[in-house]
Amino acid sequence: MDQINYYASQLAYEMDAAELRGLLPADQHLALIDARHPEAYTLAHLPGAISLPARQLTPLSVGHLERERLYICYGDGAGCQAAQRAALKLVQLGYTVKTLAGGMDWWQRQGYPLEGLIAEPRLAMAH
């Protein structure tokens, strides 16, 4: 793959925190998938996200998802591959998917809101 195709693919299949924030909560055709462990999700997650750990994705576990939505998968951060694992499984099952570049880490660095049990979300980062 040459560099042009590489960068074009990244832009086609990823979005950054600022782009996602600009779409929320108005875009009803978009849904967030937290691909981390359920315990991390309980502690802190992006507003409106649902917990679907990458390691537990099966045709049965995602059967309730609407096919016409765009699913944005995220993990802890740049070093976490939970988002890519979840995205791959969802695409293989016929869903439209992008990943959130930088995951929770880059979302927090922008100062965007989170939901969950703890005030300091960095403590929740564990995929």
Give a structural overview.
It holds the Pfam family Rhodanese. With 127 residues, the chain is an alpha/beta fold. It contains 5 helices and 5 strands. It has helices at residues 3-13, 17-23, 38-43, 82-92, 103-109; strands at 14-15, 30-34, 50-51, 70-74, 96-100. It has a 5-stranded parallel β-sheet with strand order 1-5-4-2-3. The mean pLDDT is 91.
Q: What layout of secondary structure does this protein have?
A:
Blueprint: H1 3-13, E1 14-15, H2 17-23, E2 30-34, H3 38-43, E3 50-51, E4 70-74, H4 82-92, E5 96-100, H5 103-109
Domain Rhodanese: 26-116
Protein name: Rhodanese
Pfam family, one: Rhodanese
> What is the β-strand count?
5
Mean pLDDT: 91
What is the end-to-end distance?
30 Å
* Basic shape: globular
Order of helices and strands: HEHEHEEHEH
Major sheet: 5 strands, parallel
Look at the helices and sheets and give the structural class. alpha/beta
The portion of residues forming beta strands comes to 5-15%
Strands of the widest sheet, in order across it, are 1-5-4-2-3
Q: How much helix, percentage-wise, in residues?
A: 25-40%
Task: Show unreliable segments.
Answer: none
Report the radius of gyration as a whole number of Å. 14 Å
Number of helices: 5
Pfam family, one: Rhodanese
InterPro entries: GlpE_sulfurtransferase, Rhodanese-like_dom, Rhodanese-like_dom_sf, Thiosulphate_STrfase_CS
Domain Rhodanese: 26-116
Protein name: Rhodanese
